[in-house]
Specification:
By secondary structure, the protein is mainly alpha-helical. Helix content is 60%, strand content 0%. Helix 9 runs antiparallel to helix 10 (172-188) and helix 24 runs antiparallel to helix 25. The chain is elongated.
């Protein structure tokens, strides 16, 4: 009975194990087929102790599926920031696995922890060196990528040898990986610069588009100033622009920009001028206009036309024009980085007339998401500071929308104020008046500043802007009132002395407004133009002195200045003198030292007793005689500059331009040379590497005349092969030529003539064969057997044309 029970228990255990294996097998099969839930990948993020203990066992397993499961769990732990370096020895052992998926995960792990375990990482270097000779191009490229990514300085010579080996590889994908490994090796060991430059020079000869883009990236990182390496391949790079990938295009365009600024003269020697077609549109007057206006307009247009003609006389270098023509189609690219790179070339390297091409593509990019939209708008605002005419035709594209975030709204306001002219100011002001009604106080304040910039750009519209700002003074928003007063102050300085009514209206706001900036600006205006409002200014001073102790520091300073100015204009007025003395006494004991210093200075200038003491002691009383010139001198109106002016000193499209200061790695574009450098350095022979268009390599193989002549006439072995040529394996575009007898029409072959000639040759061959058979029939009977054997051999050779020469039987 006990034996029976033990057998039953063992049977139950075996059944449980079997069911567990079956269920696990079903799960594995489901994963292979793809039948897994939405959270199937979440199983690898399970950090329980049981799962972590099984990882080491899975990595040592012989089953690839278990190894993959363990490696995926390790990569998941790395993504969560957990340190799994303790499994480094177990992972390194799997670097020799034949499973590509396992190798990929092992390589990712090695890149993460190779610096922490340099000794163990060096153990896998031999495996990587062996993989560089693997027949699979993916394995070769992956080995070099991982080997160059291990940041261990000791292996830099080995990495350099691997780069040199892969740079001469048959696969363009491997050569591209070698180009990407060059900057890594350079950052690891800068002493290898000369050897890496030699590799870059050899890779620049490559005809594969994917290799050229990566090579130029390496060039920009290692030796961006070695333009002597670019001379030979400049025209090839221009012609290959459209064939490169998007990121390769950006790198090549950046290189060509620096090369063009170094090798070509300034295309705008007379300065940046408005193109002729735009200036003609602006010079057109209305039908009803005075003759004097028409004559002046004709003179201005004539002078502008002369200037444009002078600019048009400047002839561009052929290679300079080639660069601009090659870049133009890239403005239709879907990649915003490519479009911005082309815009950078046209902005920094093209004549004013050609720069018009970049406006429409940039405006097209404004339909993207808001982060990219902000970058494009910032670049447009920077360009509009120096060339506003480029974006006059796209005014409505820069109107603010209700869904725009704050940073895009402010940038659009900068653009609108930069491109404002006499022709479009009415539209812009009408739009800005709608923005003032926005509930966003900060946006309304920015809009008021924009109105002031428009008025200063077009002085004829200053009165209209001033009237509109005066209406905003009744707003309940203190911030709006303060900004309006600040802008009105600047506009009144432009108008001159005709400001009496405006200043009186502003002075009435002192009873209601509490914003310190607004009150300080009003007191300054009253003091500066006190001669025009001599009946109102003393009363304003009287009210200001009452609340002097409760005012802000900047307001106290302006009240002291107002008191001194009124005392200077009315030296014998007793009331004003008492008010001045009273406010100076209050400021003498103020908590702010700026206020005390200002009061001490003005006391020495305005109080007679103090002035006499100073005059007797050190002779400073001479300042009192020039008191009016000191306090009431004419002040120049302030110049409102956009924040984009600070970005104009940086290269367009760079990150340093966005943040308005120089960042690490930023390289400013060089200035134009004063004299044209020798253009003959770019004149090279039309050889295989430098010719434009696909390479045409004549290969002799099956189907050619040479093949027929060798195998039909019974010649010996041939070196012709129908396999993939070495040039094709290297990624070169090879066009097998037709027979040497084919006729050419221009640069192409006439196929009709070729097939006609081939048919005629076949007829001649058939006639020759018939003659040979007739002569053989007349020969002796002893030679008949030999002729039959030869005919049989010829038939067999004709059937075996697709075989290699070694497999065909030889004739006797």
């Amino acid at each position: 009975m006990a034996e029976y029970i033990s057998k039953a228990m063992s049977f139950a255990e075996n059944a449980a194990k079997l069911s567990q294996k079956v269920s696990q097998g079903l799960v594995d099969n489901a994963i292979e087929i793809g039948i897994q839930g939405g959270d199937a990948g979440s199983q690898y993020f399970d950090t329980s102790e049981e799962k972590m203990r099984n990882i080491r066992r899975q990595l040592d397993s012989r089953n690839d599926r278990e190894k993959l499961d363990g490696l995926k769990r390790l990569i998941a732990m790395i993504s969560k920031g957990r340190d799994v370096s303790e499994f480094f020895p177990d992972v390194v052992k799997n670097v020799v696995s034949q499973n590509i998926e396992i190798r990929k995960l092992v390589y990712i792990y090695l890149l993460r922890y190779a610096e922490q375990e340099p000794d163990l990482a060096l153990l896998s270097i031999n495996t990587f060196q062996k993989d560089l000779g693997d027949k699979n191009q993916i394995i070769r490229a992956m080995a070099l990528r991982v080997m160059s990514g291990i940041r261990v300085p000791v292996i830099s010579p080995i990495v350099l040898l691997g780069i040199k080996k892969c740079a001469a590889d048959m696969s363009p994908y491997v050569r591209k990986t070698a180009a990407h490994a060059i900057p890594k090796c350079y950052s690891l060991d800068p002493t290898q610069e000369d050897s890496l430059i030699e590799v870059i020079s050899s890779l620049l000869k490559d005809r594969s588009a994917i290799v050229i883009g990566s090579t130029v990236m390496a060039f920009n990182e290692v030796c961006p100033d070695r333009f002597d390496l670019v001379h030979t391949y400049y025209r090839k790079l221009c012609h290959m622009l459209s064939d490169l990938d998007e990121w390769g295009q950006i790198s090549v365009l950046d290189l060509l920009l620096h090369y063009g600024r170094n090798q070509f003269t300034n295309p705008n020697p007379n300065g940046i001028k408005m193109p002729k077609d735009i200036s003609e549109k602006r010079s057109q007057k209305a039908f009803y206009s005075d003759s004097s206006d028409n004559s002046s307009a004709d003179e201005e247009s004539h002078s502008e036309q002369e200037q444009d003609d002078d600019a048009a006389e400047v002839e561009l270098d052929e290679d300079h024009s080639l660069l601009l023509k090659s870049c133009l189609p890239l403005l239709q690219s879907r990649n915003s980085g490519v479009v911005l790179a082309v815009a950078r070339i046209y902005f920094h390297l093209a004549p004013s007339q050609e720069a018009q091409h970049l406006a429409k593509p940039l405006v097209r990019l404004l339909r993207s998401h808001r982060e990219l939209q902000y970058v494009i708008l910032t670049n447009i605002a920077t360009m509009a500071c120096s060339r506003p005419y480029l974006f006059h035709g796209y005014l409505s594209q820069f109107y603010v929308r209700s869904t725009d975030p704050v940073f895009i709204r402010n940038t659009k306001l900068d653009i609108l104020t930069a491109i404002v002219t006499e022709q479009n100011i009415n539209s812009i002001l009408g739009e800005l008046q709608q923005y003032v009604k926005s509930p966003n106080k900060d946006f309304v304040a920015s809009t008021i500043q924009a109105i002031g910039k428009c008025a200063m750009t077009v002085p004829d519209m200053a009165n209209r802007c001033l009237k509109g700002l005066m209406k905003l003074l009744t707003s309940s928003n203190d911030l709006v009132v303060a900004e309006s007063v600040s802008v009105i102050k600047r506009l009144l300085q432009i108008r001159g002395d005709d400001n009496k009514l405006s200043i009186i209206r502003l002075a009435k706001l002192l009873d209601t407004t509490t914003v310190p900036v607004a009150r300080a600006n009003i007191f300054w205006l009253v003091g500066q133009y006190a001669e025009n409002i001599d009946t109102v200014a003393p009363d304003i001073l009287r009210k200001a002195v009452k609340g002097f102790a409760d005012e802000h520091d900047i307001v106290k300073t302006q009240i002291l200045t107002l008191s001194a100015k009124l005392t200077c204009l009315n030296p014998g007025h007793e009331t004003i003198s008492l008010l001045n003395q009273y406010v100076l006494n209050l400021a003498r004991y103020d908590l702010n030292y700026d206020t005390r210093d200002r009061a001490r200075l003005l006391r020495s200038l305005t109080l007679p007793a103090t002035a006499q003491i100073e005059q007797s002691s050190d002779g400073t009383g001479v300042l009192q005689t020039h008191l009016k010139q000191i306090l009431l001198s004419e002040k120049e109106p302030p110049v409102l500059e956009s924040d984009m002016q600070d970005r104009a000193d940086f290269t367009l499209g760079s990150l340093s331009m966005m943040v308005k200061h120089t960042l690490t790695g930023y390289e400013a574009i060089p200035d134009y040379p004063e004299e044209q450098p020798d253009p003959s350095v770019r004149d090279v022979e039309e050889d295989f590497f430098n010719s434009v268009g696909p390479a045409r390599i004549v290969e002799q193989g099956f189907g050619s005349d040479s093949f027929e002549s060798r195998y039909r006439n019974g010649s010996g072995h041939s070196s012709a092969s129908t396999a993939l040529s070495g040039f094709e394996a290297r990624g070169f575009s090879v066009v097998h030529s037709q027979t040497p007898k084919a006729k050419k029409i221009g640069n192409d072959y006439d196929l009709d003539a070729f097939y006609n000639e081939s048919s005629e040759e076949e007829e001649l061959d058939s006639e020759e064969e018939s003659e040979l058979t007739s002569s053989e029939a007349e020969s002796s009977e002893e030679e008949e057997d030999d002729s039959e054997e030869e005919e049989a051999v010829s038939e067999e050779s004709s059937d075996d044309l697709y075989e290699t020469p070694e497999k065909r039987p030889l004739r006797r």
